[in-house]
Amino acid sequence: MGKILFNPSVMPAANAPSQSAEDYLERIHELIQTKGYARVVDIASSLKVRQASVTSMVQKLARAGFVNYEKYRGLILTDEGRAVALMIQHRHETLERFFSLFGLDAETQRADIEGIEHHLSPDTLAMLADLAAFFEESPESLKAFKQSRKRRPNTQSCG
Ligand code: ZN
User: What separation in Å is there between the alpha carbon of 92 and the centre of ligand 1?
Assistant: First the structure.
């Protein structure tokens, strides 16, 4: 199996993890960080999918060189898998940093980040990181933005 280098901007789509593979790598990484191991049953309940789906995706991730199964340690991330998982984690944290500026409901924010994070280009993500930094460095701008929203009540919700 060839070495897989993950670089979303230059890598051909065929070798990049799919959006759903990214969800799995993200969750496996989180489980290993928090519990020390990632069991199929925990991945399944965390992603709300069937254990058979987890097994099938884990096999795909293993073939792509992102995870390995070791007898006593269970599922582990390869160096490549860890690099991708860290990129996914960093991207998630960037979005969290950006969205948390605006006082949205925490559960809505989490669900929306999970929904959009795999669809953002590196350029858009970099722009959002810069926008977060801009508002963090300039609280008066953030305040002005929030006040301008209050003057536009009709755009705050379409529901
Ligand atoms: Zn995420």
Answer: 5
For the chain, the straight-line distance linking the first and the last C-alpha, in angstroms and rounded, comes to 50
Please name the residue that has the structure tokens 């953030």. 142
Q: Would you say the C-alpha torsion 133, 138, 144, 150 has a positive or negative sign?
A: positive
Q: Which residues pair with 76 in a beta bridge?
A: 68
Closest CA to 27 of 71, 61, 3, 72: 61
What residues have a C-beta under 5 A from ligand 1, the ion? 92, 117
What is the 154 CA–ligand 1 centroid distance (Å)? 30
pLDDT, tens only, 49-85? 999 999 999 999 999 999 998 888 889 999 999 999 9
Q: pLDDT tens, 125-140? A: 999 999 999 999 999 9
For residue 23, the CA-to-ligand 1 centroid distance in Å is 7
